[in-house]
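Exam prep: given the inputs below (a chain plus fe (ii) ion), describe the expected output before reading on.
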Amino acid sequence: MRILFLGDVVGRSGRTAVLESLPKLRERYRADFVVVNGENAAGGFGITEAILLELLDAGADVVTTGNHVFDQREALIFIERQERLLRPVNYPPGTPGRGVGHFKAANGADVLVINVQGRVFMADLDDPFRAIERELEACGLKSGADAVVIDFHAEATSEKEAMGHFVDGRATAVIGTHTHVPTADEQILNGGTAYISDAGMCGDFDSILGMDKEEPISRFLTKIASRRFAPSLGEATICGVGIEVDDATGLARAIAPLRLGGRLSQAEPAFWLTET
Ligand code: FE2
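Solution:
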């Protein structure tokens, strides 16, 4: 099975790139399952129902989020009826929406997707490790699902690496999101779990984390907020990873970065470009 994961979609620039490219990428790579992190899709902050539906329409099977999930207040309502939108599973009990879902891939496989948020340099949610343990106990790889994909939305690479090794051999992939900058540590861990500290963003890299540069620089210099952060509108680089799954075990055979368009060096999963 082939799983395509796209990192945080930021604002109109990221949205336009993903909406235009995803149908073609799905076909080009013959992807069976697509996860997109959409928590910055609406003006850089949160997601609206209309944007969610556009992403699903373009070929996302699941849209994950993170700390900005409820920045657009309507998300508190529509997340209840949109089962393909996930928020971190370790929010307090009673939070609207769900952090985990079971979805059918194009090849018929059952994919469990878990969205979870880190606690280092972030809000103090419930323990992400115990939350993941609970979910894997309830629906483990092969016992409950053909593949298990974890979007770990976290700031600290230490916490992300710890999560990768914590579930190594028990999940198909642990994909880091939130920092918006793609890391170069994609690898298959010893137990067979695909791992990357951060998939990077789908957004304009002539920016500060996808935002127009002026206000963030001014805040570093003056410590005063003068205006709202606004997404940078230049051409986006689509960032993500491709994961080749061993259907017999549900573990990963290979992981490779995807970087298309915009300013970053270009990369595609080579193992998907040769005819098999
Ligand atoms: Fe985030």
